[in-house]
């Protein structure tokens, strides 16, 4: 049985990697794929390893996580090729017959390993992307990111502020403009379906429902996700109505990170609504929200003026955000924990 080898950082995995591994599998009986990571990298190796296990469930493909802190280029160490030979032999556990790469290093490495080398799509004609390009501007290369891992690269934008400042309308407009998802305020849906008035016990299910909506919507978002409020808003209203605190909510309200926040000002008319009752407190509620943003150490963009001005300003900011690098916070263990329900 022929044993093939693919190795790389997969930082992050993309459809070029999928093409490489799929082609490699056609040319050998069993394939080992080494996920090589360094501690300093922004996407943890443990996460990339889990992604690859999910992307390639084939029992004939063995996925192995390599944590050796090896040099990355021959000029970094005179023993470069020998170090990598030892790492590969340790983690493959059997002789490699064919090395598959899409890189120039494939030929010299195959000679060190004493195996055949098959080069696949060196010039990126089949899949014109690289992991570096995805890290630098994920939304520009969105189509080449596997659906499984796209939620980690979604730019999450929160619209925040007190009652009747146009958050819902603007979120819906922006989602349409950028052909993506937006999350309505979960509290409204929850309270409209509830029999009886709101009470303090409603706040935890509201918070969990809103966060779950975010997690689910990110799975199908087209690079951007607009949130009509977030858990910081839920925390503010819990404090206003009940002078109370829920540790699960507080931790997430203050700890969750977003790519941008739009703070909508109160310079538009108040609109009556059966779920709104703080029209006389617009100034004080704005102060509460500003304090909450400070408590969460969250920067934000002011959104002011008439509706058309607000729309134009928001679109300009989002267009700039679309060109920005991946958000390293999205991959941290802490942010992943906060978006879970443990």
TrEMBL record:
UniProt-recorded name of the protein: ATPase
GO molecular-function terms, A-Z: nicotinamide-nucleotide adenylyltransferase activity; nucleotide binding; ribosylnicotinamide kinase activity
Stretches assigned to the Cytidyltransferase-like domain: 6-136
Keyword Nucleotide-binding among UniProt keywords: yes
Top-rank lineage group of the source organism: Bacteria
Keywords of the record: Nucleotide-binding
Pfam family, one: CTP_transf_like
Domain NadR/Ttd14 AAA: 156-310
Annotated GO biological process: NAD+ biosynthetic process
Organism name: Leptospira noumeaensis
Nucleotide-binding listed as a keyword: yes
Residues engaged in binding NAD(+): 14, 101-103
